[in-house]
Design goal:
The complex is a heterodimer of chains A (172) and B (174). Chain A is built from four helices and eight strands. Chain A has 172 residues and is α+β, with helices and mostly antiparallel strands. Chain B has 174 residues and is of the alpha+beta class. The chains are: A alpha+beta (172), B alpha+beta (174). At the A-B interface, β5, β6, β7 and β8 of A face β4 of B.
Chain lengths: 172, 174
């Protein structure tokens, strides 16, 4: 079996997930992790699939299915990645303010420079309000107060607000 | 906490994020000041004019004072309710039994989010006019009080959402 990364993005309509995953199932593909959402009206899916077929063969099957639905589909082979496991404290970072280019890159650069690993990130533009929420694993020796201060300083330069807080990790 | 003695209130425009006034901590005020008493009446009038609104804080009407109003009486999730009231210079005294719940905000009209709040709180403050009060409450009214206290501290619910997938486009406008 091979491990394939499949992406599809384009026009949203009922049945797009059924069509793409149906074609993968016919090829003997098994969906492992996936995320599918709607981004500003566009349907977007990212899948890791284990499949017996090589990526070009899978892409040849999916391309016409996608084309009929108005989706651009890509298939690439990937290697299995060991999950790094928790490296430190999970935190949630919120940034919000007036939209302008460069907010995500500036904020994630600062996080990366402190060894923080972004494990999930979503952004939304709602009217004039731009919102970024990132889940970040910070190395155990991180001075969180110092990082929060630097984020606040960066946010001020960008004209936005930033807050960093420990993620709620309690489970039932 | 009798709001009936206030002057007639005016419906004020509600500011929306990303307005900076929503991110600046507000300041304590003299509860007997006529302007504070008028603001209390205006907050109530503006809350009443906004369908589904259970609370409104001064920064939401572009005033950097520590004043907010709450009325969780009619909400289906409310258990304890202290009616329709205004709190000036509020302070959180106790908070316990934290639970996640969905919140929205007049100042963030297009989004809702899951926020962990205490379901039991004790908050103190003064009424417009200057009577000291202690509000001990639970459930939805406790959530509303914490949401409004955040506003006068310069925070919106987006600063407390639980994670990257805890914010949602609003589907129902009251």
């Amino acid at each position: 079996m091979r491990l394939l990364a499949v992406t599809a993005i384009g026009h949203d309509r009922p049945g797009v997930i059924a069509a793409i995953t149906g074609a993968l199932a016919e090829l003997g593909g098994n969906l492992e992790d996936s995320t599918m959402t709607i981004l500003r009206g566009h349907f977007a899916m990212m899948l890791i699939v284990s499949a017996p077929a090589p990526p070009d063969a899978v892409e040849r099957v999916l391309a016409p299915v996608g084309a009929d639905l108005g989706l651009v589909v890509t298939v690439r082979e990937v290697t299995a990645e060991a999950s790094p496991g928790p490296v430190g404290g999970p935190h949630v970072l919120t940034v919000h303010g007036a939209d302008r280019p460069g907010i995500v890159s500036a904020v994630t650069r600062l996080v990366a420079d402190h060894g923080g690993n972004v494990t999930d990130l979503t952004t939304r533009l709602a009217g004039e309000l731009y919102l970024l929420i990132a889940e970040v694993d910070l190395p155990p020796d991180t001075d969180v107060v110092e990082l929060a201060g630097r984020l606040a300083g960066l946010a001020k330069e960008l004209g936005v607000e930033a807050s960093l807080r420990p993620a709620e990790t309690d489970v039932l | 906490m009798d709001a009936s003695v206030l002057p007639p209130g005016r419906v004020l425009p509600v500011v929306r994020a990303p307005a900076h006034v929503l991110s600046a901590p507000a300041v304590d005020v003299d509860p007997a000041d006529a302007a504070v008493v008028q603001l209390a009446a205006d907050l109530l009038a503006t809350m009443d004019a906004s369908p589904g609104c259970v609370g409104l804080a001064a920064p939401q009407v572009d005033v950097r004072w520590r004043v907010f109003c709450v009325d969780a009486t009619a909400h289906r999730k409310t258990r304890t309710s202290h009616g329709r009231f205004v709190l000036v210079n509020p302070k959180l005294v106790e908070a316990s039994r934290w639970e996640k719940g969905r919140e929205g905000c007049l100042s963030v009209p297009d989004l809702t989010g899951d926020v962990k709040r205490a379901t039991r709180v004790v908050m103190c403050g003064v009424t417009p006019g200057g009577e000291e009060v202690v509000v001990e409450t639970d459930g939805f009214e406790a959530r509303a009080l914490q949401h409004e206290l955040d506003h006068v501290d310069g925070l919106v619910f987006l600063d407390r959402v639980a994670g990257a997938h805890a914010v949602f486009p609003r589907k129902v406008y009251m």
